[in-house]
Every structure is written in structure tokens, then in C-alpha cells.
Amino acid sequence: MNKEVILYMVIPCYNEEEVLLETTKRLKEKYKNLISNKLISKESKILYVDDGSKDKTWSLIESIHKNNNTFLGIKLSRNKGHQNALVAGLLTAKSYADVIISMDADLQDDIHAIDKMLEEYYKGNEIVYGVRNSRKKDSWFKKTTAQSFYKLMKIMGVDVIYNHADFRLTSRKVLDCFENYKEVNLFLRGIFPLIGYKSSVVYYERDKRFAGESKYPFKKMLSFACDGITSFSIKPLRMVLILGMIILLISIVIMIYSLVVKIMGKVVPGWTFITISIWFIGGLQMLSIGVIGEYIGKIYHETKQRPRYFIEKELLK
Ligand code: UDP
Ligand code: MG
Question: Of all protein residues, whose CA lies closest to atom 25 belonging to ligand 1?
């Protein structure tokens, strides 16, 4: 049997007073099982991250912690959003833990998938993605928007795991790498596949939210999707360049057409000149913007200062 690992769960909470006690109850039970099955060490903890909640979330976390020191908490100074709350939790937990699992507070993620995730970890995987195997319990709206989102990301060339949200196991080694990504516009789902290392996937049934409302209204969802694309892809810039080229090509066709019509003498004076100018200048401008876009794309990559590589194994001695 492997040496038991210290597992920290990181759970972002924003106005989750309605679900927190139930989540705590279920996780307590889960940890008892995991510890008695020798899957995790007794020093394993659960870290709640209060993302500047306006309800009683933090005082609940305080009293949960007082009753049982398996449950820990950190409180952000204000609402910083799900992704930032997650990062705060992950980077705090990694100083104490061997493995970290992030999960939502609302019990939509199946906590029984944790066993399978740990199994995959013991098989040597450094990242284990929790992937929902169906969206039966999601509303039509959520299902459609989410699926179009994953498709769009793929078209834009962003490497994301289909139907994986932020239910994920990572080893401390991976989080040490992750710490090198200094970007402010965070889209964690896009970063972890970039890090590399051996990874695997665990499927689970995603449940309905246990109580309370979604903290991701449509507006937040849209800005999240937008962040995901603009933080990982410069394809939109390149599309402008391609469009410019296409319009410039069209302008040549228009030029020939206009001249033919002129020669045939069917036009009012000035028409040929104006038609050719409009298309040619339009194409030229679009092309120029595209060229500028290419350079902006380079600046964009440089300013991110992303790490160039991580060494997984060494044979140096
Ligand atoms: N959350 C957060 N800060 C926010 C919004 C959400 O920490 O500004 C947390 C929330 O408490 C939950 C998780 O992020 O644990 C996912 O949110 P939610 O379940 O509302 O999203 P949905 O499942 O509807 O996409
Ligand atoms: Mg949820």
C-alpha cells in the first residue's frame, strides 16, 4: 500500500449559507471513510474559501472550524469571483498538502468521485479531471450555452477538457508549476492542460444544486466565456487579417468587373472610380488592422510571461 497522502479539499463559497452545513456533514462522513480505508492521512483537511460573502457564510465557517478542526477557512477581503477564490485556496493549501481537490460548495459534484480520483492519483496521475457524463439534470438553457461554449473554445484552439468544470485533483507538484502563471485574467480550465504531466479523467453524474441559487448568472457566465477565449487565443485577431485578405481579393474581382462595365459604356461618370476605391481601401484597411493585430498578439503572449517549460524527470547524475 502507498504511504497515505495528505488531502486538502478546496471549496470556494459565495453566499452559501444554505448549503454549507449539509456539505460539511457529507464531507465529514466521506473523510471518515477515506481515512479508515487508508486512502488519505489523518492530517487531511477541508479548506473553505469565503469569497467575500454577504450572508452568514463566514460565521458558519468559523463555527464549523471550532467544532472540528478538519475544517479550515480563509476569507477574502471582498468578492473576487470563483476563479480567484479557487486560486487563493489552492495556493494556500499547497503548503500543507500532497494532493488537492477543488470542488464547488453546492454538492453538484459527486463526492464519491473522490475515491476514484485518489485511485487515479495512486496510479501515478498528477492531474485528475472530474468530467460529468451527462447534463440530464441541467436546464435546457445551461446545457445549450455550456455546450456551445466548449465548441467555441475548440474552434478558437483553446485546449479544454470537454464537460470538465473545476472539480479536479492536482498534486502539489502541479500547483508548484501553476504558481508560475502570473496572469490576472484567470481561466483555470485552460491553464491546467497547458501544464502537462500525466493526467486522467474520472466521470461522474452531476447533480442539481443542493439549495440556494446559482452564483453564475448569465452575465457572469458570458464574461467568463469571453475571458476564456481572450485569455488563451489570438485567433480573433488573425481572423481580421484573413478577412482583410479576402476583401482585398474581392476588390480585384470588383475592379475587373467595374472596368468591363465601364468599357461597355453602361455607367454614370465616377461610378467605376468610387466602386474600386471603396473595395480596395476597405480591404487594405482591414489587412492593415490585421497586421497590427498580429503584433498585438505577440505582445499579448509576451506580457503573460508564461513559463516556457517544466521538467518532469531528470537523469543528470
Ligand atoms: N462562487 C464563488 N464566487 C463567486 C461565484 C461563485 O466563490 O463570485 C462559488 C460558489 O459558491 C460555488 C462555486 O463557485 O461553490 C460555483 O458556483 P455555482 O454553483 O453558483 O455555479 P453553477 O454551478 O451554477 O455554474
Ligand atoms: Mg453549482
Answer: 216
